[in-house]
Amino acid sequence: MDYSESAIAAASAPKPLKIWAIFASTFVTIFLAEMGDKTQVTTLLMTAESHNPWVVFVGAGSALITTSLLGVLVGRWLASHIQPKTLERAAGITLLFISVLLFWEILH
Questions:
Q1: Do the beta carbons of residue 40 and residue 34 sit within 8 Å?
Q2: What is the residue-wise DSSP string for the chain?
Q3: Domain segments of the chain: what residues?
Q4: Which residues contact 98 (CB under 8 A, 6 or more apart)?
Q5: Which of 73, 76, 94, 72 lies closest to 84, judged by CA?
Q6: Digit-coded pLDDT (tens) for 74-86
Q7: Would the pTM of this model clear 0.90, i.e. be above it?
């Protein structure tokens, strides 16, 4: 049976339910990771200082969108050049190294 490129693309396209699951997982993970971090505290302080919350909101939102875009683009590039298992190990080693450095800093 000969499949056209559009039939192959349609068969491999993510299903809407899977897309929403990826979206929800990403939203919850990033939302919880950002709660109470230095970005949120900085945004809070800048809003209190400037008395212009909407301008701070647009600036902070634009910055977060831009950094997220960079993360997605670099992640996509890495995924196309490096095996997923290698990426997982590299991320784990990097986070472990950062944890050791932070712990070392606390002790000294």
A1: yes
A2: -PPPHHHHHHHHSPPHHHHHHHHHHHHHHHHHHHTTSHHHHHHHHHHHHHS-HHHHHHHHHHHHHHHHHHHHHHHHHHHHHS-HHHHHHHHHHHHHHHHHHHHHHHH-
A3: 5-81
A4: none
A5: 76
A6: 999 998 999 989 9
A7: no
Which residue has tokens 């909101």? 57
What's the pLDDT tens digit per position in 30-76? 888 888 888 899 999 999 999 999 999 999 999 999 999 999 999 99
Task: In whole angstroms, give the CA distance from residue 78 to residue 81.
Answer: 5
Q: At how many degrees (to 10) do helices 53-81 and 84-107 cross? A: 130
Residue 76 vs residues 22, 29, 63: alpha-carbon distances, Å? 15, 19, 20
The single-letter code of the amino acid at 24 is A
